[in-house]
Design the sequence.
């Protein structure tokens, strides 16, 4: 009976991860886009909601999977999918971890969890944007400007996420507890230590993703610089040829022929 109950709980947790990941995925499409590739969306509010309702691991996986899938199916963000999985997981995991802390007031505990979870994500997101610009060879000032531009919409997204997720999680949490579903989705008590198999795997994954992302960006930057060098060389050759042609026309006392006028038929 005990094994059957644990198997049923495990199945319910898998279902919850799938459902919440779908909400995160759909929330990303509820957006307002701006010209500098930034946008306001509801994806982050669903990430926080997953963590607040179902804890660190379940909420983190739902957040990471939903956010990563959105990037994976987008031609604009596809290369960022692995990093998005990690950063969204960190947001949901942090919110879920703090929401299960010893703070007595439910509202205070939920609010603090949501705020800190969102701050963790904003720091990771802006750090990625800043480092990306530096790896691409842009000066520090340009990288800082891009980061500041993205910080504005990130903070707006964060405020919207907290405002939506906190009251919604409190209301839904009471309904889940009353129905008994919350008990069926709870996992085993989590270790108080930070270095457990899950955090170790995620740390290694984050390092691998960051290294791969940096190598890819560095390669793209080198290709871009090589192409710019070729373009400059071609422009220099064209200028030299134009100078020689002008010199010949001057020596021969000739003028440039006027381009023939074309008339539409």
Sequence:
């Amino acid at each position: 009976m005990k094994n059957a109950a644990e198997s049923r709980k495990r199945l319910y947790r898998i279902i919850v991860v799938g459902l919440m990941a779908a909400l995160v995925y759909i929330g990303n499409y509820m957006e307002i886009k701006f010209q500098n590739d930034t946008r306001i969306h509801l994806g982050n509010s669903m990430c926080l909601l997953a963590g607040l309702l179902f804890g660190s691991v379940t909420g983190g996986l739902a957040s990471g999977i939903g956010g990563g899938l959105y990037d994976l199916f987008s031609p604009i963000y596809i290369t960022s999918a692995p990093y998005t999985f990690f950063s969204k997981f960190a947001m949901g995991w942090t919110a879920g971890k703090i929401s299960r802390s010893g703070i007595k007031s439910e509202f205070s505990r939920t609010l603090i969890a949501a705020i800190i979870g969102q701050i963790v994500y904003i720091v990771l997101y802006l750090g990625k944007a800043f480092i990306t610009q530096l790896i691409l060879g842009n000066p520090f000032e340009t990288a800082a400007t891009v980061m500041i531009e993205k910080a504005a919409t990130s903070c707006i997204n964060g405020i919207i996420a907290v405002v939506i997720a906190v009251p919604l999680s409190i209301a839904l949490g009471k309904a889940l507890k009353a129905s008994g579903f919350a008990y069926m989705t709870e996992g085993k008590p989590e270790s108080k230590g930070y270095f457990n198999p899950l955090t170790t795997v995620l740390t290694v994954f984050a390092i691998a993703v960051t290294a791969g992302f940096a190598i890819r960006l560095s390669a793209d930057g080198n290709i871009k610089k090589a192409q710019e060098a070729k373009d400059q060389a071609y422009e220099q050759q064209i200028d030299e040829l134009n100078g020689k042609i002008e010199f010949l026309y001057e020596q021969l006392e000739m003028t440039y022929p006027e381009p023939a006028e074309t008339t539409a038929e």
The two ends are 88 Å apart (CA to CA). Residues 197-251 form the longest helix (55 residues). The chain is about 80% helix and 0% strand.
